[in-house]
């Protein structure tokens, strides 16, 4: 007679255990989904900051901030996206807000200074950079220090900052090009030529450096194209730049010859070169 009671007790115990197991399982599943959501959100943030349309990213991070205004990663995302969208004044304001949030880091001030420079607020950018601790030695910090020094024609400081920045990155082509352009504006043409060549060696696709290199050579009245990687269209464009440099320096006949070479070299109709040549020929 005791067997049914014992069986009932066992079944009741089993049900209770099953209930506890079900609660634990649900909690585990909820935690797992929470972790997945964090990973998914992180991936989505990365996508928004890299491949998404910048204005789409601005909308995304604006919505995210309304839901979680304390999240500094969303505030950074908004600031970065505004700068990517070339809304530099808004970007500077967003970076300023980032620097005031708990968890702000020295690099947030560096990014704030970058946005200020893009917005044309050089004095404020310099002040923000000056407030960054000297122990914060990063590529972006020294790149901006160099640009600010350049703007003030503090050439020795600019060169020192450029040199430091180059040593702090594995992709120095852009900063080498900037440094070369600084030398070009100072009239230090051989130094500029060397730096542009270094930039091209680091990144053979950097057409800006190729164009600047041609200008540096032309400024020294060297009207031959350098031996660098270039396709046919680039060759034509560089010949055009060289022609304009020659004409600017009074070497008009040389410039005409280079324009003709550019027109013949271009795989399509080169309207800008044709216009320049016609204008020269019309003026005698």
TrEMBL record:
Residues in the signal sequence: 1-18
Gene3D superfamilies cross-referenced by the UniProt entry: Tetratricopeptide repeat domain
Keywords carried by this UniProt record: Signal
Xref: Pfam families: TPR_16 (PF13432)
Entries under InterPro entries matching the protein: TPR-like_helical_dom_sf
Identification of the protein by name: Tetratricopeptide repeat protein
Organism, scientific name: Sulfitobacter aestuarii
């Amino acid at each position: 007679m005791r067997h049914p009671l014992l069986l009932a007790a066992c079944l009741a115990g089993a049900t209770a255990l099953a209930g506890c197991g079900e609660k634990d399982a649900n909690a585990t599943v909820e935690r797992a989904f929470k972790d997945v959501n964090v990973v998914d959100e992180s991936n989505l943030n990365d996508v928004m900051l890299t491949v998404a349309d910048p204005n789409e990213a601005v909308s995304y991070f604006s919505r995210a901030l309304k839901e979680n205004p304390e999240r500094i990663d969303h505030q950074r995302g908004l600031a970065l996206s505004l700068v990517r969208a070339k809304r530099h004044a808004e970007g500077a304001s967003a970076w300023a807000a980032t620097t005031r949030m708990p968890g702000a880091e020295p690099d947030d001030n560096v990014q704030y200074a970058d946005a200020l420079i893009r917005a044309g607020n050089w004095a404020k950018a310099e002040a923000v950079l000056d407030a960054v601790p000297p122990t914060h030695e990063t590529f972006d910090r020294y790149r901006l220090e160099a640009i600010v020094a350049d703007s003030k024609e503090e050439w020795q400081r600019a060169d020192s900052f450029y040199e430091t920045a180059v040593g702090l990155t594995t992709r120095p082509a852009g900063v080498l090009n900037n440094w070369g352009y600084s030398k070009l504006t100072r009239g230090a043409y051989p130094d500029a030529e060397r730096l542009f060549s270094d930039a091209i060696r680091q990144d053979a696709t950097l057409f800006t450096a190729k164009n600047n290199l041609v200008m540096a050579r032309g400024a020294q009245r060297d009207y031959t194209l350098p031996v660098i990687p270039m396709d046919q269209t680039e060759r034509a464009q560089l010949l055009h730049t060289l022609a304009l440099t020659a004409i600017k320096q009074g070497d008009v006949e040389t410039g005409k010859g280079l324009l003709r070479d550019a027109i013949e070299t271009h795989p399509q109709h080169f309207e800008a070169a044709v216009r320049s040549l016609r204008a020269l020929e019309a003026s005698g």
